[in-house]
């Protein structure tokens, strides 16, 4: 068997087999991105950063189905099947490139309105409402306090009506010694939540971008392999040789 065709078929079979694994991985990444943003949706007014995640999940669904198509087309040496598989790869490759582009674009937009939206939520803190739960969850999970830093609480109505204190979710440890007093910074998480939340969202999106890029590279080699098989078989033989020949 021609070395080029053998290698190309091997690549296509490998590509077909990893379609299922890739689909599962992409579904996990997309769900992880959405879950990460959903945990802090009270502080993120614009949902444009979920566009790449939605594309990733959509791609993962079709990859499960088309992985079987590619495997059968390669083993059965079907020109029609391989052509269809090529178009599938091109479509998925284009979707992944689009998701990558969106990720690059939106990565720089995450923190533009973050401070304003966070200030709006923090100012509504009253110890009971939905904003209170969101703020407490944020400060506990990220071990932060206030928007810019712990002193940001001094500008809120809640702090002024509670003897210039911050919520106990700002405390480093949930002990009776910490009551949230701003004049006891050694007992508080002094770092602001905006920088930590922005870093978290940037890391999540960056992780998704790396996964997208890795699978896009795999699709690119898959397209090259289909082209090699089609060109070689068209000029040298009337049909494909089996992989095991």
TrEMBL record:
Tell me the disulfide pairings in this chain.
145-171
- Which CDD domains has this protein been placed in? TM4SF8_like_LEL
In which compartments does the protein localize?
Membrane
The record ties this protein, via InterPro entries, to:
Tetraspanin/Peripherin, Tetraspanin_animals, Tetraspanin_EC2_sf
What superkingdom heads the lineage?
Eukaryota
Spans through the membrane: 12-34, 54-75, 82-106, 204-231
Query: Which membrane topology describes this protein?
Result: Multi-pass membrane protein
Q: Which GO terms describe its cellular component?
A: plasma membrane
Q: What's the chief localization of this chain? A: membrane
Name the UniProt key words of this record, in alphabetical order. Disulfide bond, Membrane, Transmembrane, Transmembrane helix
Pfam families the UniProt entry points to: Tetraspanin (PF00335)
Protein family membership: Belongs to the tetraspanin (TM4SF) family.
Name recorded for this polypeptide: Tetraspanin
Q: Which organism is it from?
A: Etheostoma spectabile (orangethroat darter)
């Amino acid at each position: 068997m021609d070395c080029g065709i053998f290698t190309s078929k091997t690549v296509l079979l490998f590509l077909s087999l990893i379609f299922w694994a890739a689909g599962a991985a992409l579904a996990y990444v997309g769900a992880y991105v959405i879950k990460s943003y959903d945990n802090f949706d009270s502080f993120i007014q614009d949902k444009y950063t979920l566009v790449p995640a939605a594309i990733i999940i959509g791609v993962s669904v079709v990859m499960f189905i088309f992985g079987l198509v590619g495997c059968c087309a390669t083993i059965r040496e079907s020109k029609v099947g391989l052509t269809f598989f090529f178009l599938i790869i091109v479509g998925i490759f284009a979707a992944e490139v689009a998701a990558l582009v969106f990720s690059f674009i939106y990565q720089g937009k995450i923190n533009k309105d973050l401070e304003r939206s966070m200030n709006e939520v923090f100012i509504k803190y009253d110890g009971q409402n939905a904003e209170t739960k969101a703020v407490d969850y944020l400060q506990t999970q990220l071990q932060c306090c206030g928007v810019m830093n712990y002193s940001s609480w001094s500008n809120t109505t809640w702090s002024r009506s509670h003897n210039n204190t911050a919520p106990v979710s700002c405390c480093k440890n949930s002990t009776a010694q910490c009551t949230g007093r701003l004049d006891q910074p050694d007992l508080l998480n002094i770092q602001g939540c905006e920088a930590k939340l922005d870093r978290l969202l940037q890391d999540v999106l960056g992780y998704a971008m790396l996964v997208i890029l890795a699978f896009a590279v795999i699709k690119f080699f898959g397209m090259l392999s289909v082209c090699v098989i089609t060109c070689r078989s068209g000029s040298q033989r009337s049909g494909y040789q089996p992989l095991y020949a």
